Amino acid sequence: MKEISCRLLVIGAGPGGYVCAIRAGQLGVDTVIVEMAKPGGTCLNVGCIPSKALIRAADEFALAAAMAAGTGHIGISVAEPKIDLARTVAWKDGIVGRLTSGVAGLLKKAGVKIVLGRAAFRDGKTVEVETETGQQLIRAENVVIATGSVSAELPALPLGGNVISSTEALALAKVPGKLAVVGGGYIGLELGTAFAKMGAKVTIVEAMERILPQYDAELTRPVARRLGDLGITVLTSAKAKGLAAKGDALVVERADGKDERIASDKVLVTVGRLPVTEGWGREELVLDMDGRSIRIDEQCRTSMRGIYAIGDVTGEPMLAHRAMAQGEMVAEIVAGHRRAWDKRCIPAVCFTDPEIVSVGLSPEAARAAGKQVKVGQFPLSANGRAMTLGGEAGFVRVVARADNHLVLGIQAVGTAVSELAAAFALAIEMGARLEDIAGTIHAHPTQGEGFQEAAFKALGLALHV
Ligand code: FAD
Ligand code: NAD
User: Fold this and answer.
1) Which one of 88, 380, 384, 460 is least enclosed by Cβ atoms within 10 Å?
2) What is the C-alpha separation between 251 and 263, in angstroms, rounded?
3) Is 395 left (phi over 0), alpha (psi -120 to 50) or beta?
C-alpha cells in the first residue's frame, strides 16, 4: 500500500473542502485533498451552478414565449420559440466542466495534491483511500471532514424510475409534460418554476402552511403570486403519500384530510438534504454529533483534536458560501493564524421569480429577540430600473435598532435582487447605521437605489414614495 503524509488532509472537494485546501496551499501548508467524485462537489456539479443555468434558460424561453404570445409588451415580436432540453443540458454541462476543471487547476496552482478515491478513517490521524490504482494510506496532522450532503428521501417515495431528485432533474433530456414537486423549499421552487417556464404543468406539494417557510410571509407573497400567474398549482399543508399503483400519479393527502391524485410524468422530491456522515469511517472516531450533523465549535473543531468539519456535514444553513467561509477560516487556523467564526450574517438568496434575499434579522425575528426596531420598506414599483426590468412586484426592507439605527437586517424580493446580497451583507458586516446607507450615493438607475430609499424611509425621509 502506498503511503504519504501531510500536515493537512481535506476529505471532499466541494466548496468547503476545495476552498480550505486552496487557502492552506497558498499559506504554505502541505495539503492533500481527497475526492471520490468530481472536484466542485454538489454545488458545481449538481447544485448551485447547474440549477442557475437551467433557471436562466427557462427565463429566456419564457420571455420569448411571452413575446410570441404578444404578452411581453416591449415591442418585440418573435416566432414561437422551441426548447431542446438535451441541448440546454449540454450547454449547462459545458459551464460545469469549465468550473470543475478550473477548481482542479486552482488546487494544483496552490500546490495541493489531489487524490481521487473514497476516503475512510482508519484512526484519527490515518485515512485510507480506495483509488483506481489501489489503496493509498495518508497520515495527516490535521484532517478536515467536508463530505457535504445528499438529497433526503421519503420512505413512501423512494428515488428511482419516475421519482427523481434534483440531480436527475438537472439532467433530463426533455421537459416532462406533468411534473409533481414534493417540497416547496429552495430546490422545489427554483426548479419547479424553471420547468413551468419551459412548458411543464407543475404542481408543488408542501407539507407546511406556506411555501418557503424559512422566509417571512411578506417576502414570499410576490413569489406565491407569480407561481399562480405561471399556472403552477401549489398545495400547502399537504403530504405526499406515495405513487399510485400504475406509477402515473402522485397521491397526496390534502389539508382537508382527503386524498388527491396528481397525474405526473415525473415526481421531483425536494424535501431537504442530509449530511453525509456515513461511508468515511466515522465509526473509527469518537465524534460528538448535533442531531444528524457533526458538532463543531466556533473554529469548526470537532470533539476530536486535529479533526475539523465544515460545510453541509455540519448542518444548517446548508449553503455553499457558508462552507467556503468555514473552509477559508480552518485553513488559516491550521496555518497558525488566530481565527474564529465572527460573521455577523450569512446571506440567503432564493433564485425564484422574483428572487428573494435575506440578510440578518427580519422585523419579526428582531422583535422576538427583544429589540425595538425601525423598519423602512421601499416598493420596487417606485424604482425606475425595476420598471425597465419588468420586475415591479417587490420591495427592499431595512430593519434597524430604534435607538442607534444600527442595521440588523435587510431583505428584498424582486427581479434580479440576488445581486444586492453583496451590498446588504457588507452593510451588516461593517456595522452600518441607517444614516450610512442613506448617506451613500447609489448609482442611478439601479435597484440599489431601493436600498437607499428603504433607509431613508426608516428615517422618515423617503424621497420617491
Ligand atoms: P458538497 O458540495 O456536497 O461536497 C462534498 C464532496 O465530498 C463531494 O464532492 C463528495 O463526492 C465528497 N465526498 C463525500 N464523501 C467522501 C469520501 N468518503 N471520500 C472522498 N470524497 C468524499 N447553495 C448555495 O449557497 N446557493 C445555491 O444557489 C445553491 N443551490 C443549490 C441547488 C441544488 C439543486 C442543490 C442540491 C444544492 C444547492 N446549494 C446551494 C447547496 C450547496 O450545493 C451546498 O451547500 C454546498 O455544495 C455544500 O458544500 P460542501 O463542501 O459542504 O459539500
Ligand atoms: P428545503 O429545506 O429548502 O425545503 C424542503 C421543503 O420540503 C420544506 O419546505 C419542507 O416543509 C418540505 N417538506 C418536507 N417533507 C415534506 C413532505 N413529506 N411532503 C411535502 N413537503 C415536505 O430543502 P431543499 O429545497 O431540498 O434544499 C436543500 C438545501 O439546499 C436547502 O436547505 C438549502 O440549504 C440548499 N439550497 C440552497 C439554494 C440557494 O441558496 N438558492 C438553492 C437550492 C438549495
Assistant:
1) 460
2) 9
3) beta
Helix ranges (H only) for 254-413 are 320-334, 363-368, 384-389
- Tell me which residue has its CA closest to atom 8 in ligand 2: 185
User: Which pLDDT belongs to residue 391?
Assistant: 84
Q: Which residues pair with 33 in a beta bridge?
A: 10, 114
Q: Is 346 in the pocket of ligand 2 (CB under 6 A)?
A: no
Task: Please provide the CATH number assigned to the domain covering 163-271.
Answer: 3.50.50.60
pLDDT tens per residue, range 340-362 = 999 999 999 999 999 999 999 99
On the question of a common fold for 2-46+89-150+274-334 and 163-271, the answer reads yes
| Residue located nearest, by CA, to atom 33 of ligand 2 | 318
What's the CA gap between 315 and 254, in Å, rounded? 30
271 in contact with ligand 2, CB cutoff 6 A: yes
Q: Is the pLDDT of residue 303 over 90?
A: yes
CB atoms within 10 A of CB 395: 24
* Among the bound ligands, the one closest to the CA of 51: 1
- Which CATH superfamily hosts domain 2-46+89-150+274-334? FAD/NAD(P)-binding domain (3.50.50.60)
On whether the pTM is more than 0.70, the answer is: yes
- Mutational pocket test of ligand 1: of 33, 43, 122, the residue with most ligand atoms within 8 Å of the beta carbon: 43
Which ligand number lies closest to the CA of residue 43? Answer: 1
Contact present, 248 and 219 (Cβ < 8 Å):
no
CA atoms of 394 and 414, how far apart (whole Å) = 5
Domain extent listing, the chain: 2-46+89-150+274-334, 163-271, 348-458
Residue whose CB lies within 8 A of the most ligand 1 atoms, among 11, 22, 32, 48, for a mutation test? 48
Percent of the chain with pLDDT over 90: 97
